Amino acid sequence: MKNVSRRAMVAGSIGVALARPYVARAAGVTATVWQVQGFVPEEDAAFRKTVDAYEKLSGNRIDLSIMPFQALNQKAIAAIHSGEVPDLIFHDAPTTILPQNAWDDRLEDVSDVVEPQRTKLSATALLNASFYNSRTKQRAFYLVPIKQACAPFHMWGDLVRKAGFDLKDAPKTWNAYWDFFKPVQTALRKQGMRKLYALGLQITTVGPNDGNGLFAHFLIANGGQGIVTQDGKLHTGDPAIREAAIRSVEFMTKCYTDGFVPPEALSWNDADDNNAYHEKLFVMNFDGTLSPELAMIKNHKAYYEDMVVMGLPNRNDGSPMPAQLGAGGGFIPKGAKNIAVAKEFMTYFMRPEVMNENLKNGLGRWVPSIPSIVKEDPWWLDTATDPHRSTYVHEAVLGPTVAQYNGFNPAWGKVAAEQVWGQAHADVIKHGMTASAAIDKAFGRVEEIFSKVVFG
Amino acid sequence: MSATTSNRRIHSKLFYRLQHYSVELACLALGGVLVIWSLLPIYNMWMIALNRHDDIFDGSLWPEQPTLQAFRVVITEDFWYLARFWHQFGNSFYVGVAVSFLTLFIGSLASFTVGRMHLKNGWMLTNAALMTYVIPASFLAIPMYRIMQIYGLANHLVSVVAALTTFATPYAIFIFSQYGKSIPMELDESARIDGANPWQIYFRIYLPLMAPALVAVGTYALLLAWNEYLYNFLLLSTPESMTVAVALAQFLNSDESPWNYMMATAIIYAIPPIAIYYGSRRYMAAGLTMGGVKG
Amino acid sequence: MGRALVREWPPAWRPRGSERAWIAAFLIPYVAVFVAFMAYPVAFGLWMGRSPALYAELVRDPKFLPTVLNTLIYTGVGVNVTMFGAILLSGYFMDRSRWIKALLVLFMLPWALPAIPAFLAWHWMLVGHWGFMNSLLDKVFGIEGPIWFNDYWLALGSNIVATIWKWMPFWTLIFLAGRMAIPQDIYDAADVDGAVGVSRFAYVTFPLLGNLYLICTLLSTLWLVGDFTTVFFVSGGAPARTTEVLATYGTHLAFDSGDPPLGSAAMLSILPLLIPLAILLIRRLRSREVQL
Fold first, then answer.
1. Could you say which of A185, B160, B276, C281 would form a disulfide bridge with C218 (CB–CB 3.0 to 4.6 Å)?
2. What is the spatial distance between Cα C218 and Cα C130, in angstroms, rounded to a whole number?
3. How far is CA C233 from CA A289, C84, C227, in A?
């Protein structure tokens, strides 16, 4: 094992020494690639397949390590900060790594891989892949975006029916949509389901993303989408945005204090809401990707009959609500020894047919960053064989979308890591603060975090 | 013999018995508390493992349809996270045994030298080791990752063995030098007069007398290596090189993991260290009888 | 009582020539490991956290001081309860009857279990009214249990109890080994003097194990300060990151905020408190009086 990789290393450095950049066939070079483990085995198999096909085509070798999300995060940060890096890291939504390290000039510019596909890629994918470098003082592509994901609504259709409601009657605006499920709880409790709740609202500070993603969508629904703009500027001083944030906190905390959210939601970890959802302890929640459904795909009745996935209703003012997308793909740390091979592999991966094949093999938990793919291949929108995918694809690809704020300014990642919004909810619920006081406190902290990041 | 003395004797016998029984009763009660204390969370793990799905919140005190299916899945490697379970189990075993053996060997040699070979300022050596505990292990993660890359040990079990031995050894030295002070120096001296060299004194006299401490520290090092995961997953990354501790962390990859499999894996994985401790327990008891020889 | 064993340590005479070679040979493995795997990482780590600006940034974070306070409570209570319980229980487990031996194996289980699943089980046992604990309270005692992690003290207490549960078996084992080194004739002499039960513990056992006890307390303090698994998996910092300790806080900074230098600084910030402890520990170890 060790011998092989060391020999590979030597071969690799020789290869780089000989090869000029972008030589298509840098014959026999081995690149080290770290890949994030999928949620389902099919995702890993799909990646392996893509790698095999590339190896056959190019004559290069990929030395592949697959590791769990959290481990890859830590390992990637350890690698980048210690300078002992792999040639390519393929990661899901690496928002904690990319913005800061692009800023610090620790990543390779991959614009030459992304540019050729620029016209095909969605605007959101392009935004999610580009970051500001404080040394070169400009934005560039540091991620080769392969896949994207959004958060849809997940609900137990059978519970809604049992309560005597029809999902077709669900209102078309955001707050009213959530409110629709409250009487479902009341009705089901009357039928004897004493401890059932309507909403799996993750107003927690524990899980890394659930609480932050939820708040961002509430903010968008209330007209506060511009809290951070593409130029990296923070707009907490804008009264409309402050108002949107206050209304978001008010609505969510009221759902909680009115008893429509399980009381422990305040301290849920990443998996707790999913576990509770599978036990049917609440009717609906809003959570990333199709994983709650895919986890139960072997339970035919649950997957095909009981579970329902719904896209986003409109914003509270009636205008269409964009979904916020996370991106996954490859990036190259500075100091990588086989940049040419890494780029060549990603160029291959960006071919629409390769991307499509790979994501389909991964059961469609992630959607392609090239929208035309889902229009050309009927598999993506086929409702006959799969009840959920089409809804999901409509939300993530065909409907309006926006990029995550993380890419606009690295400070946003720190705001998320501090769980500032979850704390605002706790301030209201536990300490009796008013929503506006809680938001003033949260905004104060956000402004302080942003003040340390100065665009040159 | 007068009636009063025999009466008193009966009284004191009764008192003694009562006292004896109440002590026994208190012991039993404490035993009961300890059983509940130790097993309550384990019972919860066990329950999750026995459920057909990962019914963590189903609110029942005993699974409705208990099944050993999760254990079967683990044992037969019938789930993708566990596809190389027995191989990884072997890796864990290798790491655990190597770390505990090296820790005992290096630690006891160092404490023997410092404590029994009249090394001037030898204590400074152990102090330097101790000072490293001031720095939390998790803080050393990044530098440790780097140094293993430099040594060319990345993704090799040796790297984990080296890192964990480094963490465990200072502690071993402390316990050994504390414990070793109770072993009379005269034993060494008489052996020396009989012509034994330091190695023989170490191997034939010091080590056997240290048995209880060796068992305690050996179990400590084994479990440290067995269950440590930060360094394991920082330093190892392919399914071939992983230990079970890393494989277990795979379940955290997703918010939708089959937690019943995770708990079953954890329970199976806890058996070997307990068995090893149980097997070496009699050496601890041996120390007990030797205690009488000393002093 | 401890005086009985007082002796010069080690006896003052110098090594002979050939002895020097033996000493060198015996120390090489340890010194090699130490230099190869400890010296560099520690130096590198200190170097990462060297900038004073990092500490200024920490102090400006409103979460920092409460986190330090939590660390003190968590470690202070956790360590002392663990140690005191362990030294008492080690006496209990000295009993050689068979069922107590069997109980010891059972008692060791928490320590043998891998930490992540064990602490996740704690989390699930306590999270909300569907967790095992509240189901138990409800079904057996008819009590509506609290939402454990929504209350600061209950959440902090859960973390402390979980850490005691996990680590007490280990320290019990160490004290058990320590007790086994106490020569039986000391107890015999104490028996003659009529020292039994509490007084035997207070006047015989504890003075003899005192040094070991102190050292173990200091060591476990150092370890617990660096331990992040318990808090990370049991309460996860809930409610609202109020039960975070420095180890979890530093990990969040290093890996969730992607700022390893700041995370390192957070962990180093406790050094002014730990170094005096370490110096105390060293002085205890150097004490020439052999207590045990």
1. C281
2. 39
3. 24, 25, 11
B159 with B183, same domain: the answer is yes
Query: Which chains contact A through at least 3 pairs of Cβ atoms less than 8 Å apart?
Result: B, C
Q: What is the pLDDT of residue A352?
A: 95
State the residue range of the domain holding A24: 2-150+326-403
Residue of C60, C239, C258 lying closest to A426 (CB–CB): C239
pLDDT of residue A449: 93
Min Cα separation B44/chain C (Å): 6
- pLDDT (tens digit per residue) in C171-219: 998 898 888 777 777 777 777 777 667 777 777 778 888 888 888 898 8
For chain A, percent of residues with pLDDT exceeding 90? 76
Domain-by-domain residue ranges, chain C?
Answer: 2-12+62-286
Q: Poorest-confidence range of A53-57, B7-11, C265-269?
A: B7-11
B-chain residues within 8 Å CB-CB of C130? Answer: 56-59
pLDDT above 80 (res C13): no
Please report, for the domain that includes residue A24, its CATH number.
3.40.190.10
CB-based contact (8 Å) between C146 and chain A?
no
Q: What is the distance between the alpha carbons of residues A412 and A265, in angstroms, rounded to a whole number? A: 24
Same domain for A124 and A30? yes
Q: What is the pLDDT of residues A366-386, one digit of tens each?
A: 999 999 999 999 999 998 889
**Alpha-helical runs (H) found in chain C:** 17-34, 40-48, 52-60, 64-94, 98-112, 115-126, 132-136, 152-180, 184-192, 197-200, 206-226, 229-233, 246-251, 260-268, 271-286
Cα distance from C30 to chain B (closest Cα, Å)?
6
What is the pLDDT, as a whole number, of residue B3?
55
Domain that holds residue B20: 3-65
Domain boundary among B65, B86, B112: B65
Residue with tokens 């094992």, as numbered in its chain: A1
ipTM (interface pTM): 0.86
d(CA B60, CA C139): 9
Tell me: do B104 and B235 sit in the same domain.
Answer: yes
Residue B293: predicted pLDDT: 36
Instruction: Encode pLDDT of A269-305 as tens digits.
Output: 888 888 889 989 999 999 988 989 988 888 899 999 9
Q: How far apart are CA C226 and CA A386, in angstroms?
A: 48
Query: What domain count does chain A have?
Result: 2
Place of tokens 């006890």: C213
What pTM was computed for the model?
Answer: 0.89
Regarding beta strands A138-141 and A130-133, do their DSSP bridges make them parallel or antiparallel, or are they unpaired?
Answer: antiparallel
What residue type is C167 in one-letter code?
W
* SS3 call for A32: strand
Q: Which two tokens stand for residue B4?
A: 């009063």
What is the distance in angstroms between the Cα of B22 and the nearest Cα belonging to chain C? 13
Statement to judge: residues B79 and B57 lie in one domain: no
CB < 8 Å to A275, chain B: 54, 56-57, 259
| Cβ burial, residue C104 (10 Å; 0-12/13-18/19+) | buried
A202 touches chain B (CB under 8 A): no
Q: Which of A82, A207, A278 lies nearest to residue B145, judging by beta carbons?
A: A82
A328 neighbors A91 (Cβ within 8 angstroms): yes
Question: Does C12 have pLDDT greater than 50?
Answer: no
Q: Domains in chain B: how many in total?
A: 2
Q: Pick the closest to residue A425 from A297, A245, A276 (CA basis).
A: A245
Mean pLDDT score, C102-112 = 90
Q: Give chain B positions within 8 Å (CB) of A281.
A: 57
Tokens 């769980």 sit on residue: A419
- Higher-pLDDT residue of A10, A417: A417
pLDDT of A248 higher than 90: yes
**Position A456 in a domain:** no
Residues in B touching A39 (Cβ below 8 Å): 253-254, 256
- Which chains lie within 8 Å of chain C at 3 or more CB pairs, if any? A, B
